[in-house]
Amino acid sequence: MNENNDEKLIFIYNADSGLVNTVKDFWHKALRPSTYQCNLCQTTFGTFGAKKEWKSFINDLGIESEFLHKDEFLEKYDVKDAKYPSAYILKNGSLSVFISQEEMNKVATLTEMEELVSSKLK
Questions:
Q1: ω before 33 within 30° of 0 (cis)?
Q2: Which of 11, 32, 51, 105 has the most C-beta neighbours closer than 10 Å?
Q3: pLDDT higher at 24 or 121
Q4: Residue 6: which of 78, 86, 94, 85 has the closest Cα?
Q5: ∠84-87-90 over CA atoms, to 5°?
Q6: Is 16 part of any domain?
Q7: 21-32 pLDDT, tens per residue?
Q8: 26-48 as b/e, with b when 16 or more CB fall inside 10 Å?
Q9: 87 with 99: CB under 8 angstroms?
Q10: pLDDT for res 33
């Protein structure tokens, strides 16, 4: 595993932060899951938060990870034409796409998401 402190994975949800958006997203996922626009949320979250297996997987990666909503990501990083959901890697102050929106949206299960992240880190 990579223990480099100069690297960080940044996962971005296709949702905005805040209580109103959280409640709206909760009901959208519950009532119309097929039309929900965040595959990262869909595969890694259960009803009341991140799945335990996902949390363990992220903790065992050996690289710092951060999870942001779209609005938080855009506030913190200057990325033109970012697409969501996706993941970026920050290396030596430089940000680049780690998992594209297209790749993220092809994932159907938590296991597939974990395999995608693992394969990209190799």
A1: no
A2: 11
A3: 121
A4: 94
A5: 130
A6: yes
A7: 555 555 555 555
A8: eebbeeeeeebebbbbbbbbeee
A9: yes
A10: 54
pTM (two decimals): 0.78
d(CA 83, CA 29): 20
Residue 67 falls within a domain, yes or no? yes
Domain that holds residue 106: 7-121
Structure confidence by residue, pLDDT tens digits, 59-88:
999 999 999 989 999 999 989 889 999 999
* Cα 95 from Cα 24, distance rounded (Å): 30
Q: What is the DSSP string of 64-122?
A: EEEEEEHHHHHHH---TT--SSEEEEEETTEEEEEE-HHHHHH--SHHHHHHHHHHHH-
Domains held by the chain: number: 1
Which amino acid does the sequence have at 71?
D
Domain-embedded: residue 2: no
